[in-house]
Each structure stands twice: as structure tokens, then as C-alpha cells.
Amino acid sequence: MTQSIDLRRRGLLRASGVSVLSASTVALLAGSEKMAVAQPSNTANDVGILNTALALENEAISAYQLGATSGLLQKPVLEVAVMFQTHHKEHRDALIATIRKLGGTPVVAKSDAQVAQALNASALKSQTDVLRLAQRLERGAANAYIGVIPSFGDRALAQVSARLAADEAMHWTVLTQVLKDPLPAKALSFGA
Amino acid sequence: MLLPASLMAAALALAVAADAAAADAAHGQELYESRCGGCHSLDANRVGPAHRGVYGRKAGSAPNFNYSPAVKNSTVVWEERTLNAWLTNPQALIPGQRMNFRVATAEDRADIIAYLRQQSGR
Known about the structure:
The structure holds 2 protein chains of 2 kinds.
Chain A: H1 5-8, H2 10-15, H3 23-29, H4 33-36, H5 40-68, H6 77-101, H7 112-118, H8 127-148, H9 155-178
Helix pairs in contact in A: 5-6, 5-8, 6-9, 8-9
Chain B: H1 5-22, H2 25-36, H3 69-72, H4 80-88, H5 90-93, H6 106-119
Helix pairs in contact in B: 1-6, 2-6, 4-6
């Protein structure tokens, strides 16, 4: 059964003494969906942000699918790519569950063919090409999750966005190491 | 001393114009690729609409992109002032939009706008 992201944070949020949870989040954490949807002003905007995040995750899943089936990735890079795709699928499932709990309708994913065209996948001719595309998308995803944090009405969802950004940054770091690119010389390289 | 609203608006416009004059499109390209590239491309609709030609374009008018009703129905035209407001806080400019991504630093916003303007041939 798919759990929403917030439910998995319940214990830690309590333990860390977080006191900024909105009424809607408290209701969501308590499993009361009726209460959760009773805060319409912030919730509608939060659902919009989560749906944009879902579209981003759907694109990432398709991009890794294109890479994995391209015949360009060799083991063990292929296995890592498939693992990262699994992470994105877990993000997708958690986002869908959360959007539904908040009373929203999850956006429908584009087809792999549509994503391939938008990302110009026909130009990918080598493993390095595929990894560069993945590296670029992961950096963009991390920065996207950081860039929407101030817009969440619900601070618990903002924290979730930070956790998702951390996953994407981890992916970017591994891809950067595989590509033998230098690591950032300065701190605070994401979100900047 | 309190300034009249019209004077404050003029001062704000001057500040935006000054930022635009000093903006660095090359740095804007770096920022665009790292911060906007998760969702946007210049020539393809992805999570967000294609951006080539966005400067000077009416909001919600990129061909074949499924905009929110709020953006589609907006009368905003993208130029220095509106793009600066959009990147500062999209929801404040067009309530009901779906982007919500914010660029906190005025210099970074100016550089990104300079790049978008350059890529729009303006």
C-alpha cells in the first residue's frame, strides 16, 4: 500500500518538536482527510506545487527508461540508473498519495515518446551522453525542489520538498563521480 | 517620510531598470540551466512551457502548452518588471498559477531575465 510522504515523517516530526505544522497537516498526519481538505486557501496552492513536482518525477522516470532501454548504458552504470529510476517511482507514488489525501487530482504522465522528443533523446549516442542528460535533469530537479520551498503554505510539505531535493542531489553527485567531473569548489552550490 | 504610491512605483521601476542594465546574460544562462532546466527548455514544452521568445510574449501563449487557467487568462506580458515579479513570487503576480518556483536574489533574477531576453531576440 502506498503511503503519503507525510505519514512516514510522523514519528520524527513529533520527536523533533516541530511546532509549525498547519492545521491541514495536523489533520493529514492524524489521518483525517475531511479536516485536511478544510483549509482551501493554502491547500490548493500546495496541491499545485505537488502536481508540478509529480510532472517532474514522471519526466525523470521516462528519461531513465529511455536511458535504460537505449543499449548505451553498461553495467554497473545501468544498474545504478535503474535504482535511481526506482527512487523517482517512489517519489511519484508518494506524491500521488499525498495529492489525493489533500483532495487533488494527480497529473497524468506524458508518454515516453513525448518525453523523448522534448529531451531530444535521439541525439544521445553514448553512455556519457545519457549520463550528462541525467546529471542535468537531477541538478534541475534538486534546484526545483529547493526553489519551491518558500511557496508551500504547509511547512511540513516544505520539509518534504527538502528531502526530495536531497535525493536528487545524491543522484547528481553519483552521476558527477561516474562522469569524473570535478565536484563544486564552493559550498552552497545547489539553489544558486 | 512616506512617499506617494506613484513615486514608489517609479522608484521600483528605476531599480528594476538599473538591474536590467547591469544584468549578465552569460551568468543568466548558467542560472537558467541549473535552476530552470529541471522543468524548462528553450525549445520544448516540458513540465513548463518552452522559453525561447518568452520576452515580450503574453503569459499563457506558448503554443501547445497546457497552462493553468490563471496563467492562460492573465493579461500579463513578460518583460523586465513582470518577469522580475514572477520570479520573486509567482503566486503574488498571478494567483492560481502552478509554477511557484522563486529566485530569491535580485541580481540572479536580472541575469536570468537578461538571458531570456537575449534568447527572445529582444
